[in-house]
Amino acid sequence: MINSRKSTRQALLYMLMLYSISLHAQDKPVSGFTISGNISGTKDGSQVRLVDIEQQKIIDSSITQNGAFILKGHVAEPTTCWIECNNEYATIQVENTVMTFSSPLKDMKLHSTTRGGREQSLQNELNNLQRRYESIYTYAYDSLKNKLYSSAKQKEHLMKVFNEAQDTYMNIYVAFGLKHIDSYLGLDIIFRNRQKISKDSILLLYNSLPEMLKGTDRARALKIYASENLARKGERFLDFEVCSIDGKPFKLSDIKGKYIYLAFGSFSCGPCRKENRELAKIYGTLGKQLDIVNFSLDVNRNEWETAAKKDGVVWHSVSDMMGMTGKIKTLYDVQGMPTSFLIDPAGVIVERFDGYHEDTIEKITSIVTKKKAIMVQY
After folding, report:
1. CATH 3.40.30.10 residue ranges in the chain?
2. CA distance 168 to 334
3. Do 266 and 300 form a contact (C-beta atoms < 8 A)?
């Protein structure tokens, strides 16, 4: 009888323990994010994609029903993404929490409303500060692009409006990053605009970061940028070892006796792709004097390979697969794309090109065919 009561008590205790564990499991926060959204003006069955901009990958996708959709997933850290639908997009800061998104389909980037975690709240604050100027320069740009002006004077006025609005937009952007450097969004802003800030200030900003941010790729890249020697025109190039597109080891200093055109770009960069096609036209005639090295900033290998094939890249195509925060990109002070360097046979950087311009190829050809450099041993 005593043993029977003891067994009953043990059974009851065991059931209570299981019940407690069950309650605890129900109280445990969900690991991941859920975005409940609505895009008015979409047809049923329209695809909505959540795209990690940096990693060039789709995190999740959904189909609209009466404009509504749901996206789910998990991010390792707060991540800047696009919500894309029918060639429209809006930027959001995805965190592992419950989020909401609403927007008309037309001009989503200007009219979307998102609610979520701390990073999205900061993004909303920034949007409120910037959107007036974004609307102004977008209108001016569209008017210039579609030639919606009746005179040279009106065109000049539109260009002035565009430049002033865009400058104000960027000043607000950088100031916001400086004010909120203790956030992922603020850190990202400073990283993208590091050339506008002194190295001493960047080091002070880095030292002020919370420990969780100091361990991010962007913070490490900022520290490298501010504390190490960068590639500069008039100085010797910085050597590096990476892999080529066919998986073979590549070292920049292995190229000897020629000029080198080192170009940083990516699949999604239109001017980079145009430059590739223009380089393909001259490579046959300059191949004995000039070696071209495309340094891909893609982290999606398929996109890297697709761009190289479509653009007729038959020269060196290499990458460290570290994307926008890689050490080599940082040491070459690449902030926009394309950024390119012409290196003479002596190993000296003789020109830096920020962006692609119509006369870039002409300048390269002129230097390579008319200038002679003193050869030195690497």
Report:
1. 241-370
2. 23
3. no
Tokens of 110: 């200007």
∠ Cα 322 325 327 (to 5°): 75
Amino acid at the residue 95: E
State which fold the 33-115 domain adopts.
Answer: Immunoglobulin-like (2.60.40)
Structural contact between residues 304 and 296, judged by C-beta atoms closer than 8 angstroms: yes
Q: 297-348: per-residue pLDDT in tens?
A: 999 999 999 999 999 999 999 999 999 999 999 999 999 999 999 999 999 9
Residues of the chain with CATH 2.60.40.1120: 33-115
pLDDT in tens, 9-41: 554 444 444 344 444 444 445 589 999 999 999
Q: What is the CATH number of domain 241-370?
A: 3.40.30.10
Nearest CA to 264 out of 222, 326, 218 is that of: 326
Give the helix/strand (H/E) hosting 325: none
Spatial distance between the Cα atoms of 313 and 300, rounded to a whole number of angstroms: 17
CA–CA gap between residue 142 and residue 229 (Å, rounded): 41
SS3 169: helix
